[in-house]
Amino acid sequence: xxxxxxxxxRHPEPVVTQxxxxxxxxKTDYRNRMIQQExxxxxxxxxxxxxxxxxxxxxxxxxxSESDDRFLxxxxxxxxxxxxxxxxxxxxxxxxxxxxxxxxxxxxxPLGQRLAATSLEMIILxxxxxxxxxxxxxxxxxxxxxxxxxxLQFGVVPN
Length: 159
Known about the structure:
Elements: H1 5-10, H2 12-45, H3 49-60, H4 65-92, H5 111-117, H6 119-139, H7 142-153
Helix pairs in contact: 3-6
């Protein structure tokens, strides 16, 4: 699409509006792709006990990437809906102290949703604990402990 300079001077707003819409679409697409990559990385690292533990704690404490995204979205809405009108009202007010700054608040995720978000990580951690405890129980069952005590009686140190 080619436009000459004269048409841009006569009708600059539609082009600027289209450009802003295109930029916002690119930003949204980029954010969505980054979220997908982060979720894939989270699921891959959740296979290990450390990853499962880490993501379970971040979900329970509401400090993960989803809470960051929710905070940023609330900040954008606050800026559009409350902060911009506040600055406009303050600029035209004679008494600057009469215009009150609006409060900014983000509601935390309910505990039930946080617990539900950790279900996969908890299942993985439970599975690791069951496997490890089974290995330890089989290693120290009755026959193994008898052999070890016999070796200790004769001065043989186990490996």
